[in-house]
Structure formats: C-alpha cells, structure tokens
Records
---
Amino acid sequence: MKSDRDRSVRLLWEPPAEPTRGPKAALSQSRVVEAAIKVADAEGVDALTMRRVAETLGNTAMSLYRHVPGKSELLDLMVDAVWGETEHTPKGEWRAGLEFYARQVWAMYRAHPWMLQLTTSRRMPGPQAMTRTDAAYAVVSELGLSGEEIVAVVTTVGHFVDGVGRTMADRVQAERETGVSEEEWWNGRDALWEHFTPDRLPMMTHLWNSGSFERPLDEFEFGLARVLDGLAAFIESEERPLVRTRTCL
Amino acid sequence: MKSDRDRSVRLLWEPPAEPTRGPKAALSQSRVVEAAIKVADAEGVDALTMRRVAETLGNTAMSLYRHVPGKSELLDLMVDAVWGETEHTPKGEWRAGLEFYARQVWAMYRAHPWMLQLTTSRRMPGPQAMTRTDAAYAVVSELGLSGEEIVAVVTTVGHFVDGVGRTMADRVQAERETGVSEEEWWNGRDALWEHFTPDRLPMMTHLWNSGSFERPLDEFEFGLARVLDGLAAFIESEERPLVRTRTCL
DNA sequence: GCTTAACTGCTTACGTCGTACACAGGGTGT
DNA sequence: ACACCCTGTGTACGACGTAAGCAGTTAAGC
C-alpha cells in the first residue's frame, strides 16, 4: 500500500535511469506516454487501451509494461506530460499573471479534453503541474497576502477553469460518441421540445424562444473576467477576513 | 444513431409506463437506479458494475436490462435522480439565491462524489437538473440582464462548483483506492520531500514550511465569495459590455 | 375456460479489457 | 566463455458490458 504510493511518487518525480546491460530498448517510457497521448487526442478516452497504444507503436500490449507499471500510472504520466507543454506564468502584475495562467490551462484542456475525464490515481500533481502552480503562486506573492490566501486565490482560478474544461470535455466526448455535432443535435430536438413547457421550465422556454442559447456568451471569457474581478475586490479591500502577512520569499 | 439519442431523451423525460400484462416486476427502473446510487456512494465509481448492482438487489446482472437500456443510460438516470434530491432555488434577492443554488449543488457533490467522475452519455441535463437550473435562472431574471447574460451568470457559478467538486471527488477516490487518508499521506511524505527544493519550487517550499498547506482556507467558501463578488461587480456596473434588456417573464 | 401475447428474470456465451507469468533472444559485465 | 539482466512476445485468467435464447407468469381476447 504505502510502497505503492512511494513508487508512484518516484515514477513521476525521478526520471527512469537507463540500464547498462541488455538490448537497446526500441520503446521508452516517454515514447509510450507520447503514443498514449496521441491516441487519447485522436480517438478519445474510451479508445485509450493498452493494446491500442501498443498497436500504434507496432508492439504488443505487454511490451508497454516494461516501461510503465500499469495503466493508471500511465495516465498519471500522460497528465503530467501535458502539463509540461504549458508555459510558466511569467512574473508581473498579478491580474495579468493569473489571466495568463488561466489561459494556459484552458488551452491545455482544449487541446487534450481527456485530461479532465480520466481519474488519475494521484493525490498530488506531478512535477510539471507543480512548477506551473508554483509560478502561479509566485505571481500573487507580492501582494501582502497570507500563505493561505495565496493558495486560495490561485486555487479559485484553477477550480473555475477545471469546471469549464470539464463541461467542454463532456461535450467533445458526446460529439464523438454519437457522431452528432452540437448544432445538429439541437436542431433535431423534436423528441425533446414537447417537454419544454412554460409551466415546468418557465425561464428555459423563455430563454430558448428568445434565442439566448443560440448565441451564448463565451463561457470561459465571461467567467474568467468575473472571477478575476472578484479576486481583485478581495485583494484590494482594506480589511480582509484574515490577517495580512508578507509571505513572499 | 439519431433514434438512440431520441430514446435517451425519452428515457429521462418520460416516466416508464407500467405494463398491464406479465408478472409483477420485483425490480423497477427506480429501484435499479436507487441501488446503483447506493453502490456508488458506498463503494465508489469503480465498484459500480452491473453485476454488483444486481447483487445488492438479489438478482442477476441481466435482469437489470429489463428496466434500463444499458449502463451509460443507467448513469444518466442516476445523475438526474441525485439532482432530484436538491431543493429548488427560491425566488428572492439574486445573490442569496445564487449562493443557495451553489450550496445545494455543492452539498449534492459532497454526498455523491462520483457525480463528477462519470462521463454521462448525455449532451443535456435531465429534467431534474433542468428544473434546478431553471430556478437558478429565475433568481437573476429581474436584474435587467440580457438572456445571454442570465445564462452566463448562472453558468459561471456552476462551473466553479463543478471545479471544486471535481477536486474533492478525486481526493475521495484516492483515499478509498489507497486506503490512506489525506493526513496520513502528507505525513508519509519522505519519498516526496527531497523533490521540494527551493530552486525548483520556491513558492511551494515556502508555503509548505510556513504551514500554509496544513490549515488551508475552505476552498468552496473562499471561492464562492469571490465569484459572487465578481458577478456583483458585473451586475451592478453601469455600463456592461452587452445591452441591458428586460428578459423576465 | 382456454389461448395467446406480453412481460419477467435467468442461463449461457462472446468479445474486450487490464495484466500475471513464463519464455526466448540480445547485450554487457566478469 | 559464462552468467546475468534486459528486452519484447505469447498465452492465459478473471472481470467487465451485454446479445440471445429460454422458462415461467400474468392479463387480455375469444
């Protein structure tokens, strides 16, 4: 149990050492992870099987187990590898910084919608995700917030982006699964329409009829602006619920 | 394909009609859904198999298929049934209303952490979720916002709560999977600690050493207050990016 | 009443998944 | 040369979702 957990930590934080003896490996941990990411991107999370990943590499399923302990660990490695593609938040003004961070994460989720669909076996981010978070903490570290507040501020942004991302991922998945695009689906709403009666769903039917669902505001842009406004109010307020303390390095 | 989608809609929106002939069913759709929810609550999303659900009902796996088309549809029904447990947002002042809505959803996710872990086959909420959303829309409908803005405001709150919920669900899952509680895990951090070096993770190590991670602010409470503050700024601002129009019924 | 059609739940079976295990061949150390 | 460790493969097992077909049970139509 505990050794399992430790092994999992080592897997993420310590690069695999190359062996001196034995035949040169055609595969490698990073090649496996890379291939798995490609499969998930192209065919969705349901198609992400050990056999499928191995197939794209021209190997058998079991060959993967020489480079990766198991599927759930492979998922952990995939997630952290994708985090590695994002840029660190540069130092600077806090709002611009948090916005940069949010956009990076959002872009990551859009490029790899499966990120939020798979439940990783981790309790803690890997090194790539960690350094990104660290940089985000840094950008709000000079504001006189307490350590707890720094964490809370960044976490709030993270939660919002996770929420939007999750919704988007589900949409992408439904689209792939059914082969019906978002628009096509809403057009073939015959079976559904009769249930949208003003007495059961007054606001829904009203908003529907007024076309508010057809040209919605950008969920990410709108929400992010509001979240940052709310954080600004907190940061700039004279008397915060908790003590101000200098926590920057 | 399309008939599949229509069948899925009917499944959620039209209550199953009781047949006149044949033996009285010991099972029923709602009993199956109920049992499945209990299994997911008690044993987690991984234990949610057709055989396990049937077992708790004293039946065989295949008997479930008389009452539910398949597993993914069962998941849809479970999700909507849980939404049915929450209370509708009462009419009233917008901020209190949105806060009530957020707390309801948050309580729902805490009671059923699996809700955000399973990818449902829907592209659209079921009737229970719909009526809850409708009530939430209603509470911001008298503020002179446009229809698009009403949707965006409520969606923003929803995304935030989804984000926090998702994080919590992953924690619960990791706890169950490993049998190690959050505290126990952080205490046995030996294998991890050596990687927290000030040069790689300056803020992390600082926050860690200052104990900011040990007594974090409540992620939900803190974030919700900020999000609502941000929405308040938007709602109360004189000149919003988009037109004000009366959209209430 | 009897027949018939509808409906229930069960048994069996198939294909797919993750992966344990044993193995054959290649390459480095001694 | 040997021993050792490494590589990828083949086979196999148990668990999953679920298709198909089979009794047994009940109400509707004659």
Note: Chain A touches chain B through 91 residues (CB under 8 Å).
---
Amino acid sequence: MAAKPRSASKRSQRTKLQPIQEASSEPPLSRERIVAIAVELLDAQGIDGLTMRRLADRLGSGVMSLYWHVDNKEDVFDLALDSVLEHRGSPETGESPDWRGDVVHMLEDWRARMLRHPWSASLLPRRALGPNILSRLEMLSKTLSRAGVADANLNAAIWSLWNYVMGATLTRASFDLSEEDRAAAQQRLTHLSEHYPTIERSRLLLDNDWDGAFRKGLDFLLDGLSPR
Amino acid sequence: MAAKPRSASKRSQRTKLQPIQEASSEPPLSRERIVAIAVELLDAQGIDGLTMRRLADRLGSGVMSLYWHVDNKEDVFDLALDSVLEHRGSPETGESPDWRGDVVHMLEDWRARMLRHPWSASLLPRRALGPNILSRLEMLSKTLSRAGVADANLNAAIWSLWNYVMGATLTRASFDLSEEDRAAAQQRLTHLSEHYPTIERSRLLLDNDWDGAFRKGLDFLLDGLSPR
DNA sequence: ACCTGAACACCGTTCAAGT
DNA sequence: ACCTGAACACCGTTCAAGT
C-alpha cells in the first residue's frame, strides 16, 4: 500500500556498491549468526558434534574468526543454551485471576522449549543461573506471593516447582537420547524391569504419556503448596 | 644374561625374582581400580579433568592398557557415575510403619551421595537409566503402593518425587560449581537480583539453607500426593 | 590374558600478521 | 574493526606387536 515499506529504511542500505552474489553467499559473521548455527549444529549432531572448526565451516569462515565475536567454546555453549531458555515475561500475568493456570503455563512452556533441544538438558547442570532462569523465578515468586503463599514458605515453594520442572525435563530428555533405536530400547526396558517387580507391574518405564504425567505430578505439588 | 646389554638398558630390568617394592608400588590394573581412580580424578579436577592419558598416568600404566578393561571413555564415565549412585536397598524397608520417613530417607541419601561428587550431576542427564536408579524407583513404588497411593496415581507419584530430587540436586550442584569464588559470586548474585524485585525481597538466591528448603519442598510434594 | 608405543585424525586456543 | 593460517599442546582410539 504505502509506496515506501518500512523495511526499506531498515539498516540494509548495502545496495550501494555491494555485488549481489556476495550478500547472498555469506552474511557477515556476528554473534547472533554464530549462536544460530551453533544451535543448528547441536540439534543435528548432539553435544559432541559441536566443534569450533565445524562451526566455522558451516559459517563459511576461518576457525579463528569466531574468536573475535566469542570468548571461547564455553561461551558458545552459554549463548546457545541461553537462546533456548529465552523468556519474555508476558506483562499481563500480574493480573490474571488464574494464578495456578499461569504457573502451569509458564512451566510447561519452559519444559517444551528444552525438549525441543534435548542437548540443552545436559548443558544446564553446568550453568544454571542465567538471566532467563532468573526471570522465570521472578514470575513464580510474584504469582505465588499474589496467590497467598506465606512469606515463610515462599522460597521453598519456588524452588520446589523449579526443581520439579528441571528434573522432569532432564529425565525426559535422557529418555529421548537413549531411545534412538526405539525397538531395541523397548526390549531392553522390558528386560530390565524384570528384576524390579513393582515397577514392572505398574509399567512405569513403558508408559509413554510423559506430558500427562508431568501435568499430574505438577498438580500434586501445587496441591501441596497451595495456601489452605 | 649380563652378556646381553641391549635390552637391559632399555626398560627397567625386571629381575627374575620380583622385588617386594614392585608389588607394593602398583597393584595390577582392574576395572575397579580404574573406576576408583577415575572418581578421584573427577573429584579433584572436574569433568574436563578426566583424560584417558591422565587416568593411565595415575594408575602407573600405559594409556592403551586401560582399553583392555574398559570399552572407551564413555564407559569410564558410566562406571564412575554408577559407583556414585550405588544403592543397597535395605530389605527391612518393606515393613517399616513409617512410609513417609522411608521415602524421605532414601531420597536424602540419594541427594547427599550426588552432592559429594558434584560432577555426577552433569553426567546424569546423559545416562539416567542405570540399575541403581531403577532400584531406587522400585523402592519408591513399593513404599507408595503400601502407603495406599491409588494405582492410577502411582506412576505419576513416583516420577514426581524422582523429578523433584533430580532437579534439586542438579540445581544445588550447579551452585556449588559457580560459587568457587564465594565472595565474587555473592556480589554477582546481589547485583543480578536487583533486576528482579520479588526474588530480591525474599532473598531467594541468598538463602543458604539448601537442606532445609529441600526437606520443605519434599514435604509439600508428599502432602500433595498422600492418599486422603 | 594382559600390556605397550607409535601413529592417526582430530581438538581448542595463542600468536603474529594481514585488511 | 575484523579476519586469517600456522603452530602448539593437547585429545581418544586403531593397530600391530610384545609378554
């Protein structure tokens, strides 16, 4: 409609003299691009698949060029993890009448994000405290406090929800990893549980309703910490 | 034999009768010894500190000798983790009248074992399903079932306890790692929480009573899943 | 049955240098 | 400001060989 779309004024004024094919072949290196490709690589090859050399290869640059944008490999891991954990706190959460629904929603989103990138679960234990995590904790704190959880119980309540989600996600992700060969794994599980009669009877390891179990356990916990 | 100098000078001339000190200096290689030293090394140097070459060094053997007893480095990690997670199910647990106490005791023991070897937390997400874990799940299953948890709720109840403990342990271990420099970390935490008013007010990150919080959250959860 | 060194195909990162 | 290759000090593991 408008003759001049806003995107034109966007910082892509490179039309000056730049040869076209150059722009299409390889965009310039940047922190963002490095992280994006790192996540791709991790998704495709798993945690051992991420190599500075391979990363540079995919980016079409020399290995050492990465080090201008990034401190070291640890740094790449940190950034990749952080990009998975992103949290934009919805501002209206503060007023919603359904505090319980808000909590469940935020935690389910958290879990889903991590499960989309199973390697993030094995990275987390080494670097749990980033801004995105803090932001989620803040949301929990605000919501629970508003719901009437006693101040003396607040911290324990927050951590318990937190722990529950982390544990559920890590356990679930580790199943994903070990079930690459579904059939063989199923076989192995059945075999294993023979030695453990009670969990065999309840089919603990064969039940595939992870989402349902997650929700149910979360309800137990919320029941337990709801103010009476 | 003294007539042949060529092989005599190369390696230590093992005399026909074993010198006593030889036996006392290095016991023969074995799976058990390898695992024990691997755990020592991990305790001392962390996860990146474990190297096949270093391990062999500490054992007084050539690197490749390890591979007779062990498949590869992954295998060493598996064995080391397993040795930390050991669980000898006390047989009398089946009859104790205090089911809740039994559960708490087992889970606290689990957590304590892992926290004694913080690297185990970062290893766990990659290989969650060993016999020791199954044995603990079996114990939970038996105890909760005896306590009267409905069959339809049993699996969710087991997993929720499980998840809680795993999450609590991983989170706590990651704090240990990042607080190597206590003072600086404390500073950083205070600084960080400025942006998160609610958790700053409740001093969520500065509260050091981890054991108490663990116990309290566990009580919430047990309250929630206890049969009414 | 158990142990070994040499060799291979990789790593992450420092450095001095190039634009 | 950004990128580079050569070089260093490591890795895990295969292999052929030693006892």
Note: The longest helix of chain A spans residues 151-178.
---
Amino acid sequence: MFTVKTASANHDVVKQGEVATNLQVLLDGYACRYKITAGGARQIVSFHVPGDILDAQQLLLGCADHFVQTITSVTIGAVPLAEFRRIMKLRPNVAEALWRDTLIDASIYREWVLNVGKRDMTSRIAHMLCEFTFRRENAGRGPPEQWELPMTQHKIADATGLSAVHINRALHELARSGVIASDRPEVEIIDWLQLRRIGDFGPSYLHRAP
Amino acid sequence: MFTVKTASANHDVVKQGEVATNLQVLLDGYACRYKITAGGARQIVSFHVPGDILDAQQLLLGCADHFVQTITSVTIGAVPLAEFRRIMKLRPNVAEALWRDTLIDASIYREWVLNVGKRDMTSRIAHMLCEFTFRRENAGRGPPEQWELPMTQHKIADATGLSAVHINRALHELARSGVIASDRPEVEIIDWLQLRRIGDFGPSYLHRAP
DNA sequence: CGCAGCGTTGAACGTATTCAAAAGAGGTGG
DNA sequence: CCACCTCTTTTGAATACGTTCAACGCTGCG
C-alpha cells in the first residue's frame, strides 16, 4: 500500500527537525540532500537518482537532521511508516536490503569526505560528474555518453565545497581539454576514461554491479 | 563467543580490499577510519571511541573500501562473522541495533562533509574537538573538561582536510583566546560553550542522549 | 516587455599551503 | 647514563589556489 505524489523543482521533501510519517522513495527525477551551517552556508552531501530511498534514517532515528530538496520536478512513492514496519517484521529480507542500502549510503558519504577534503578543484568536479553519471546509468536513466545535467552550477558548487565561479571555469577547462563537451544544459562525456582518471574515480565504493 | 586481541598504535586493523572474517568491536583505545586518493593523499573520515564497531560494513558489503587504523594501542573484541549472522537471525533486535548504528555513522559522515566543505579553519578544528570530546565522554572515558588528546596534529590535519602547520597555528589561536589550554599532550577545555559556538557544534547529529 | 535566475568573464584579494629549518620529546642501544 | 635517532611540534616566508566582487549576456516565464 503506497501513494504516489509529485513535487516541483527546488522543493524540500524532507525538512530538518521534521518527524517523518512516510518512507519516501524517489521514482522519477533527481534530488539532493543538504545541511546548513549556523552561518547559512549550504553543503550538499549527496545526490539522488530514481530508486533511492530519501528518508531511511527516520525509520529508526526520530527527526531528520538535514534537508532533502528536489532538483527537478519529481514523482515520489510514499509508504506509511507503520505499514513499512509491519512489512519489515514479516520479511527480514526487506530489512536486510534496507540496511545494505544504508551501508552503501555511508560508503558514498565517506568518498565525499575524501573528495571535498583532499582533491583539487578539477579532480573534485570530475569525480562528482563521474559518480552522477555512473549512478544515473545504474538507475536506468539512459547511456553515460550524453545527457542533460539536471543541476545548476551553483548546486555543483554546494556539493563540492567550491564557489560557483570556479565550477564554471573548471567545466570550461574540462571542455577545452576535450574531456567533456558542454553546450549547456547538455553534457556530453567525450572521454570517459580520461574523466575517471582526472576525477580519481573508482566505482567500487558504490557497491554496484561492475 | 568472542576473542579479545590487542594491537599497537598506528596499526591497520581493517585494510582496503580485505574480506573480513570477524566483526571487530573497539573495547579500549582510539582508532580512525581513512581513505586515500590515487595521489596518496590521506583523508580521515571518522574517529572511533571504545564501543564502536569497526567493520559493520563487511557484514553485508563484501570487501572493505577503506582502512581503519589504531591511534593508540587498543584492545579489540572479535566475533566470527558466521557466528554473528546466526545471532542476528535469532535476535532481530540485535540486527536492528546494528542498523541503527549504521544510520548514526552515516549521519556523522554527513556532518563531516559539511565540516570539511563549508567551515573555515578555526571552526572546522573546533568542531572536530567538540565531536571527539562529546563521543569520548559518551563512551565513558572521563570528563569533558580535561583529557589527553590521543591524536597528533598531523592526524587532525588529515581529518579536517587542512595542513598540519595550520592545525598548529589554529590550536595556538584557540589557546590564546582562552577557549582551550594546550600544554600538550593534555588538552583542557576552558570554555566549552565558546568552543561549541566557534565550532558550530550541535550534538543532535550524533543521536545520543542529550 | 520586463523580471528573475543562471551562466560567463575579469580583476583584486585572502586564506591556507608549501617549503624549509629548528627545537622538543620519547625511545633504543651502546 | 648518554648519544643518537625518529617523530612531533613550532616558526617564518613565499607561493598558489580558490574566493569574492562586480558586471554583463542569455534564457525562460509571467
């Protein structure tokens, strides 16, 4: 038993401090998870593609300690928490699958800490592009060679801990060196292997099929 | 049924690429979890205090995608994985508790992405000190006012994405402004509230008792 | 048409890094 | 007990990377 709802772009579907009543699954569109400092600076901590669970945390941890915002218009499947807990009792496999999902999320966060903490501007952005490309394809959203980048440069900046100005320059730099082609908003990966090399990207941390 | 072992400081107890045969629990001492870039740069993604599970990930996700290294000499409890899986089948509560633990880990990683991505030098270091102080006390390792800092400045640098030189300067800066006293290796928190304010630290993301 | 958000560009600035060098602390062996 | 080695901390100076500020063009939408 679940309901389907839609939301427009740039809308918070999970709010900090809120106690969830539903388990939300992203069915179509893209979203991002972010936190804010006391000073109001915003850091995107993950991107989400169709198939991702948006608030697994609330199942066991009370209220949300962050926000989840839509990037595009989305459709979301919502299962009442009580209902979901009942299913988990009945089918331990479901609980185990969710737990596995949580472990993968944690693995991705670790990679992001590394990305934001230790890689330089170009590498950092390339890595982010690689991850999104990979997950996008993995979610069955079309081939990795050419696709429309759903997020603004400002959002990429918030995700990489850089300024929007630099994202712009780095994207042009990558285009000038022939790794990507960027007639916005279309992004074309021209040299996937080179992009992976620049971004120091190895997909093993995503724990998906090779 | 579990065995207890010891390890000296700066020893890898979980290695990247290794498939675990045991579930390891830190019983005494401190440890850190880290990843490395292709260029050899190292980023610590979490610190660990007694009571923490060091390789919950391997339960469901095959081989480790990172390292766990001891900071001090430690004692570790090890439960064979097969044994542990049997316990989980028998007692769903244990599995749920572990899952909950994984969710908290993920929450901490999110905070670290924010910390490394968006906070300035001083705030970043103060936040790290706050978190460690809080978790240390929460693990029953003595009062938060005064304690020995187990990690070197180099490790703090690796954890915050800064250089060791800057950690040194920032620590002195914090000492000069009277927030901490640092006659190394003893650290004394003089003004806990001020340190929290500087570090923009709110413990809710740790999901512990207030 | 006019407004708002996004992308683009240049120049000045600032923060943190890097390099280099030396002093202190702890451990080991002669 | 002292000499020596290594690791950590400390300090200064030059450098580099990314930020900030400001302004303008573009596009889509009301």
Note: Residues 120-121, 162-163, 165-166, 169 of chain A lie near DNA strand D (CB under 10 Å from a C1').
---
Amino acid sequence: MTMGNTKPATIYDVAARAGVSKSLVSLVLQRSPRVSEQRRAAVLAAIQELDYRPSTAAVSLAGTRSRTIGVVLDDFRNQWFVDLLTGLRESLQDQGHRLVVADRFLNTGLDVSPVEGFLSMRVEGLVIAGEPDPDLVVPAGTPVVVAGGRAALPRADTVANDDLAGGRMAAGHLVELGHVRLGFVGGRSAASDARLEGWRAGIDVAAGVGDDVTGVAVVLAADVTEETGVSGTHRLLDEHPDVTAVFAANDVTALGAMSAIADRGLRVPEDVSVIGYDDTPIAASRYVGLTSIDDRSIDIGRGAGARLLERIADPTLPTTEVLVEPRLVARRTTARR
Amino acid sequence: MTMGNTKPATIYDVAARAGVSKSLVSLVLQRSPRVSEQRRAAVLAAIQELDYRPSTAAVSLAGTRSRTIGVVLDDFRNQWFVDLLTGLRESLQDQGHRLVVADRFLNTGLDVSPVEGFLSMRVEGLVIAGEPDPDLVVPAGTPVVVAGGRAALPRADTVANDDLAGGRMAAGHLVELGHVRLGFVGGRSAASDARLEGWRAGIDVAAGVGDDVTGVAVVLAADVTEETGVSGTHRLLDEHPDVTAVFAANDVTALGAMSAIADRGLRVPEDVSVIGYDDTPIAASRYVGLTSIDDRSIDIGRGAGARLLERIADPTLPTTEVLVEPRLVARRTTARR
DNA sequence: TTGTAAGCGTTATCAA
DNA sequence: TTGATAACGCTTACAA
C-alpha cells in the first residue's frame, strides 16, 4: 500500500491522481457536502493510495484557526493530571480540538516556557493545570483557564476543587466515627491552607452541635511531601498524644503520617485513623486502602474544557470561578473509635 | 510591554519596525553570525517591543526540517515514562529538538492514532515508549525507536531494560539472604515472561553452586496488576506454604503480594520477603519501602534519544537492540531468613 | 552584510 | 459543483 521512502504526498499529488483540482481535494478533506459522490470517491481513493496526510503546519498556516489547545501541567509526576486529561478530552477533543500536553520543563531551552511554545503554535486556548507559576505571563487575548489551583491568573477562568468543602468533609467523617481529638498535618501550599481552613470549620460545626470536638494542626514550612507527613505527624503525636485521627493535606503526606504512626508502634486504624486528600491511585490501591477526599479531577477537566470553549467563542466574557464539590471515599484507614 | 489584543506580530511587522528586510529578521532568528551588530540589536528590540514569536507552523512549512520528535506513551498512568522523558529530554531536547508527547488515546477521534497525528506534524522521528501496539504501522522512512518494550517493530531500533538480568538479580538477592524456597508471581506480558525466565536462570546458577534452592512460579492468565499479585500470591502460598520470598513481575503486583501476605496474617519481611520490579515512586516511598529492580528508565531514554538522532542522520543504519542493565534497590521488604 | 523573490502545503475567495 | 488564484508566515537561494 505505502512506499513511504520519499517525501510525503501533498494535496497536489492527490489532486493529480484523482484528476481534480486541489480545491476539490481540500473540500473533501473538510467534509464539505457540496461535492459530487463521484469526485469524492476518487479523491478518497487517491488519498488511500498515496497514504496522504494533510500537513498540520500548512493547515494551521492557511486556515483561520489552529484547532489546538495547549495544556500546561505542573509536573508529570503528579498523577492527578491523568483524570484531568480525561475530562479535557471529553469536552475539548470531542469538539474537534487537538490537545497538546507539556509539563513545566518539557521544552525549556528551546522555548523559554511551555507557554511560549504554545503561543508559537498559535493555540486557540490554554489550560493551566495546577497552581500557575507566579511569574507566568499570558498575553491578553489568549483564552486561558486554570484547572485546579487557587491562585488567580489575570483574565483567566478558574475551575477547581472546593478545598474548603473537602476539609469540612474530612472533619465530618472523623467526627461521625466518634473521634473527638483531631489532628491536621500540612505544609506550605495554598491547597493545604484551604483544606485546613475547611477542616477547622468542620470542627466548629460539630462543636456547635454540642460535640466535644477539638483539633490541633501542625503546618510545617515545607512542601507537602511524604517527609512532611512523617515529621509533622511525629510532632503532632509528641505534643498531643491523645489525637486519634489525622487529616493530611494530601495522599502522599498521609502516607508519611501512616509511616510515622507505624514508627511509634501504633496501628492504623485501630489506634489512629488517617485520611488523605486527592484520592490518588496509591490511596485506591488495595495494599494502602487510604480513606481520601476525591477532588474529582475528571469533572474539573470537563468543566475547564467547557469553559475554555465558551471563552474562545466569546473572549469578552467576565471571568468566573467555579468550585467542584469533592467526595469522600472511605477505605480502611479510618475507623470508629 | 505587550498589548496582545490583536493578531500576533509577524516577521513583516518586525522587519518594518526595525527598518530591515524580512530575510534579515530571519537571519537574526537563526542566530546567523553574518549580521551586523547594529541591525541585530534593532531587530531584537523590535521583537521585544512587538512581543513577536515565530509561528512554528510557518517555520516548519518553509524550513527543511520540523525539529520535532513525537513520543508515544502507552498510558499516562504508567509512571515509568516520567524518567524516560527525562532521558529523552537530555539527548533530544538539548540537541535542539522539540518533544511532543501523546498517550495512545490522546487525540483519537481527530487522528486515527497518535502516530497519525505525529506524521501529520511531519515529525523527524518517533519514540514508541513501552510495548508497541501489535497493529501499529509506521511508514518506512520514518525513523523510529522503541524504548522499553520487547516486541520488535519493523525497521525500528530498540532500547530496553534487560529483564532477564533483572530476574537473575532478584533471585540472586534472595538467595544471598538465605532463602531457599522462592516464589514468582506474574501475568500475561512479555516483560513478566522475561523476568520469570531470568529468575529461573538465577535459581539454576545458585543450585549449580551447590545451594539447595528451588523456585515455584504462578503465572496467571491476566494482566500484571495489583489484583493479579493478590490472587497469585494466595495461590502460591496455598500450594507452597514453605515459600519465604516472593518475586513479583512488577511493583504494583508486589503491592498485591504484600496485601495477600497481610491477609494471611504473615509479616513482610519477617515471614515472607517481597521484591518487585520497576522501582516506581510507590516502591521508593517510605511507607512502602519495597525492594525493587530499577529498570533505569532515564538511561533507556538517553539511549533511545541518542539512537534516534543517529538514525535520523543516517536512515540506512542497520537496526540495533540495546539492553540496559538494571539495578537492584534493596529496601525494607526483603530480609535475611 | 543586506535585500529580492520564489517557494512550502494548505485554506479561502471568487468566478465559472 | 468545480477550478483559479491569492493569501498564510516563514526559509532559502540568489543578487546586490
């Protein structure tokens, strides 16, 4: 079928082979209905025979739109982007847009930043996944939405998980299980702060209803990592040995918490319950079975994609901020006390 | 600095602003030394002032090469690609190539497969990460290398982990620790098979030296998942209660094995040692601390990138297959018996 | 060292 | 329903 040893076929080759003009081929490519069945068949056959593929470079240069959306991830190691992408695919790709994905470092050296690269590609819009870099600059006129991430970017819509609600849920779950002395372990991040705030609000609600619930928080001046969970939890339990439930700012921190609890000869959940945030695959694994707050990344992706489409259609829209309600996923690390 | 409310600036705009011809601007863009300092400065200033970015579409259409490499991942969920990308970046990106990443499903619907999309972009080469789809077709003339993955693709170089060596290492490690009754748990995959084969060879070596070592394998007709590890290990220990060390085909399967071992009231590593494969972040986490075989994805990436460059330079090169020697990473799940 | 002009492979605008 | 022909934004001989 294909020889492929030489230059790729062009629209001219196809036209010649099918015995029509290039414009006709272009019309067929664009699925125009104003083409006779006969010619269409001839063109399609020629395309097959020549193994022809339109050059995206030529298409986007000649056309009025690139039909391309750039997605900037903070780090490929943060698995939450996988679900986010699923949601983005649904809302964007299925509408005929091509998704191009890069993490913060992918093409540095060639481009200053992935955003620069996307702008060179003349993307129609940008999705910034996670917390946008503080010194990120996107030219006015480029539609942008921030997906997950609290910091506002000028002129950008935001679709994010409701960390406050998630924090409240975590507290509520533990209170329901009968815990009265709660602990929080987090670090230096906007998400951690918001989750802590929600958790405190949740405790206040319970206390208001008459439950004798109190909470103590350890917030380290460090990134929200597993190691933070380890040292934070040790400090928490050193200072407050009566704590029976720990809410960690995210799942890897929760893993650290479990590790610290094991260090101390305590068991999860018999002695101490642990709850994380993000509902990552690690949490869902049978071995770990971590109770977690699902931030519903798929829905964030869907929402972000939908919003981006709206903004592309009408760039004058006022910016909005939508919060997606998280969901508690109870597993084996939390138990009644 | 930037207004950005209208169309992006073109090379014409820059030329006009700097008072030179477009060719001169093009030369500056390409860092040609044959440009007077005066003009260069003027052009650079104009670029700044207009917030100009060359259109990649126009560049690759007009130029002779796209300077772009397509990377096809099997699945964004398999974290091993993160290290692979790091290696590819080093060898490719630093040589002035742009990396574009897609997983198997990223733009299906628009393109038939990510490979189709890459061919439309006129990439200069392709990296297929992981086991290539059996019905994957790449036109002759397109340089391809398979990175990680045993199945040979026609006309493609291969750079992969030496699974046989890794299997041998796993067996060797356990024998050294004094284990004599070894178990293997795997599933339906080429990697699993090769690792099993290496493990058997390792046992044979030990037995040859006079050690009284034997091994029993459970290979399920299922994917190599955590669940496979659970049921495989249960079966293994049901049938062979004297096994004191389990080698799992990969880390998530090892997680399943640990889960099953816990189900039975046994402890890791006191009662049963467990070793995985891939050295994923989960294995490296403090909480899990899984002994594993590091497949050295970074080096696979480096090698694959380097080889791709060679093949692009000289497409007539005979195809090669290079194996990267894995490395044992001992952690808490294996112990002397 | 700089400018002119001819492509690159499409889409888009008109005519026919 | 089809076909010329002019863009699109850049690179690249070729001249000057």
Note: Chain B touches chain A through 62 residues (CB under 8 Å).
